[in-house]
Every structure is written in structure tokens, then in C-alpha cells.
Amino acid sequence: MKAGRFFNRWSLLAVVLLLIIIAGGVVIGLDNRHSQPVVIIMSPTPMPQGEIYVGGAVNNPGIYPFYAGDNLEDILQAAGGLTADADLSQVELKIPEKGGVAELQKININTADAWLLAALPGIGDVHATAIVAYRQQHGPFRDINELLNVEGIGTVTLDKIRVFITVGD
Asked: pTM for the full model?
């Protein structure tokens, strides 16, 4: 008779625990059913007001977009900042004429960081790092054809990037 009571108590305990688990699941399910959807609000991307050519004593001369509220410092930072020996009288700012042909922006391979060089067609991270290492070891490039001395860059690659690069202003 003792064995029967033992199983009855454990059976009763098991049924009570099962009912508690089921009731908890129902409560959680009802709570999640009435929750509000998540709303994600993204701020609009600012639209450029126009383009401006920045040249002269900057690290990466070229054409950059400018936005409402931009000041001279913002524009100079977009061009990679001033060169180490910068003379502010040598900074050029030109706003291209509406509908005119804009000058092609060229990357100065003597001052550009590896991430910028990597964006050139056929260069990538490995060759960009090799260009920077060559420049650090041998000094600035005197001519873009000197890139052929960098390991991994041949005439085909140089021809792909020739119109995008420069060694000076």
C-alpha cells in the first residue's frame, strides 16, 4: 500500500508541474501576441548641394561633394587635409560650372593611404599595401611608370589605373 501512495504523490506532483508549464507557455504566448511591431526610423541621407574642386596644397586633390552647412575645414578634410608644408595661398577651390565637364579626380600615389589606393581598379588591399611599403622604402614616386617597380604591378594593371593616378598636384 505504501508503494501506491508514493506513486500517487509523484504522479500528482508531475501533473501539477505540467499544468504550471502549460499555463506559463499560454501566458507568454498571449503576451507576445499583443506586442507592438518594432519601428526603425532612419534619418535621411543628406543630399549634396553641388561639387567643388579642391587642389593645391591638399593631400588628395580632386572634386568633392559639398553639403549645406559645410565650411572650409570640412571641404579641406574631404580632400585629405592640408599637406605637411601647406601654404594656404596655394589651396585652390573651384566650383565647376553647371553642366560643364568636371575634371577627373586623380589620386596622388605619393600621399594616398592604402585604403584609397585599394579602391583603384585591379589594385586591392595587397597591392595597395605594397605601393605604400615601396613608397616608404624608396621615397616618393617621381613618375607613375615607377609603379612597375612595385611587386605584383605590371603594365596591364598600370594601364587600368593610369587615368586615375598622379604623382603631384
From this structure: 0.44
Question: How many Cβ atoms from other residues are within 10 Å of residue 140's Cβ?
Answer: 12
The set of cell numbers assigned to 25 is: 507557455
Cell readout for 139 is: 621615397
pLDDT over 60 (residue 1) = no
Among all chains, which residue has been given the C-alpha cell 587635409? 81
Q: Which residue has the cell 535621411?
A: 44
DSSP state letters, 109-121: TTT--HHHHHTST
What stretches of 24-88 adopt beta strand conformation (E)?
50-55, 62-66
Q: What are phi and psi of 158, to 5 degrees?
A: -60, -40
pLDDT tens string 116-137: 888 888 888 899 999 999 999 9
Contacts of 57 (CB under 8 A, 6+ apart): 82, 83, 85, 86, 87, 88, 90, 91
Residue 34 DSSP class: T
Residue 52 has which C-alpha cell? 567643388
> By the 8 A CB rule, do 81 and 69 touch?
no
Nearest to 107 by CA among 58, 157, 61: 61
